Structure formats: C-alpha cells, structure tokens
Amino acid sequence: MRDHRIYLKVKIKSLATEAKIIRQEERKARERRDRTLRIGLAGHRRGIVRHEARHSLLAYGFLRGVPYDKMEAKCHGNDEPEFGKVYKLVQKFGVQREWLEADMTMEPLADWNKRSDEQDKAYKVWREESGM
Predict the structure, then answer these.
(1) Which residues contact 40 (CB under 8 A, 6 or more apart)?
(2) What are phi and psi of 84, to 5 degrees?
(3) Using an 8 Å Cβ cutoff, are 70 and 119 in contact?
C-alpha cells in the first residue's frame, strides 16, 4: 500500500523538536523571571503541541497496524483522543493514488477508491476496538 507515512513521521519528529525548543525557552524565561512568558510557553507546549503530537502518533500507529490499546493502554475516559482528528490525519497521510510506471498515468480512480474504502473500514474496526 502506498501512503505518505514518512510525511507523518516527519511531522511527529518536528513536534517533538518543537516541544524541546519550547522547554529550553521556558528555562530561559524562568531565569529572566518572566513568569507571563514562561506560563504562555508551557501552556502552548502542554496544550497545542502535545495534543497534535498525540493524534499524529495515533494516526501513525494505525497506518502501521498497531492496535489502539497497545499505544494507549492507560487512557482514561475523560482523556480520550479526538478520533475525528486522528481520522483526518489517516486520510491525509494514508492511501494515496499511485503512478502506473508502465505508461506514467495515475492508477484508475476505481482502484484508488477501493483501497481508500478498505482503509476506512479498517479504521472503523480499529476505532471500535478501542472501546471508546
């Protein structure tokens, strides 16, 4: 199956690097006693960056065939992921239309639709198996 998993992997690594940079800036703000900046940076890292990284990792795990309970064994009811966001990432980085090398044309739309439908069905099963 052709997909853009590598782009999702790059996104995950970029988010990890972003969190690391923000932590460094938080330390600098603490040394300068700039409480407002430090709190703002920490909130961004703990909120937006962490949230995006979690959903990206879940989408990447799904594309690799990892069961949800192996990725988040201790997820509690009030902290469940936004599966709609995960699904959008799966659609964006999952099954892609392929070039046919013999005649350098795109694969027939019907074939791509079939593979895309299979991915959607697999995602629904994965989502239901999560128990959420």
Answers:
(1) none
(2) -65, -40
(3) no
Domain extent listing, the chain: 5-129
59: its two tokens? 């989408």
Amino acid identity, residue 93?
F
The whole-angstrom separation of Cα 48 and Cα 25 is 16
Which sign does the torsion angle of CA 113, 63, 18, 70 carry? positive
CA dist., res. 95 & res. 4, Å (int): 7
Please tell me whether residue 89 adopts helix, strand or coil conformation.
Answer: helix
Residue pLDDT, tens place only, 54-75? 999 999 999 999 999 899 887 7
22 touches 41 (CB < 8 A): yes
Q: Give CA separation, 46 vs 23, 39, 68, 80, 112, in Å.
A: 10, 10, 22, 16, 38
